[in-house]
Fold:
Amino acid sequence: MSHPDIAAGRRDAAGYAELNTDSKPPLNSGQAVIEASRCYYCFDAPCVEACPTGIDIPGFIGKISSGNIRGAALDILEPNIFGGMCARVCPTEVLCEQVCVRTAQEEKPVTIGLLQRHATDQFFATNEQPFTRAADTGKKIAVVGAGPAGLSAAHRLSRFGHSVTVFEALSKPGGLNEYGIAAYKVPNMFAQKEASFILGLGGIEVQYGKALGSEITLGDLRNDFDAVFLGMGQFGVRALEDEGAELGGVVPAVKFIAELRQAGDLSKLPVGRKIVVIGGGNTAIDVAVQSHRLGAEDVTIVYRRGPEQMSATGHEQEFAKSDGVRIRHWAKPSRVIGEDGHVTGVEFERTRANSNGGIEGTGDTYELPADTVFIAIGQMFEGTPLDGDSLDGDTLEIQSGRIQVGEAGATSLQGVYAGGDCVAGEDLTVQAVEDGKQAAIAIDQYLKG
Structure:
């Protein structure tokens, strides 16, 4: 982004070091025991029902209380091999913690996410590999995508004794955990450490730089392997279609986050002074906070509906505002304004809810100055690599931009399963992990006839 107001080095050394500071400081051992003692250890715990992976939450918290950290970590990692990452990025405030029985008494819920992180972090520090593979079955499974869904499936399949080959388009494993989540949520290369732990089980080969539709095809995978799991995520980005969207300085938010996460020296990463973010999800929050922390002076998120309709949780919204980000609601972009080929601002039209449950423009407009506009209006599954693939007359059913699946991720193609963000459902890391796990169990049963 070549522009006089887009420059690197806006912070001092201490400021850049701060970018790798946890947004949620971990609990120490004493704090963890005290917090664990607040749990009622409910027999029919609603928090377990709220967890997509079904972690025995009262069980692992009870083990923390008694000092059995290893046991607590295994209670987490057995159902959710990405338990460390989910402890950091799961919206626990709207899942397990929201239904904690203490909230019914108008008390603060047990901080389940922080306790889960405490147990897994302490266990990972021992470098123990607690899982083992069953006897080799002679079966080979292809997994497309080394993100949470793909690696969750690969790990479970390897435990069953199958040989797994993971095909990953990028140069590192982790998917959005590595490329798409703000650095302040997962500092200190945690995504790579967790991926190494998962791959450390053995029986899993990862081939990088292998994208579906170019280096590999689904037809070839079906011929060469006994089963296939598709976990490609949704790296396609919804484009802004308004006038001026092609101007310099209009950037997909996920592209900037990926550059930031892979930057060796953040002091060399350019950032603008006036930032406008269009969108209302976690990616919008992440890119706004990251921009401000990199030295942007004015950062504003604009969303077309109200705060309750934002897919970013109330906790995420408040976090952004406490970090210096402004959030404006009920406005949609009408055109991007530019000069000499670069963005200088965005014109927004105020919106309101209509009787059909949608929104409508009011005709009232305003402008926000900007040297950078980040687009965070959603990602989509990129199905083009599957177009025209040789599938022996079979069809992989895709509707509304997502792979259609039945029970346990079974697609319309025999022996082909899918999960994670490339299928319809909740776009959550924890759900992708569960999708991969359930598909692996189904694939194992399929291979056994």
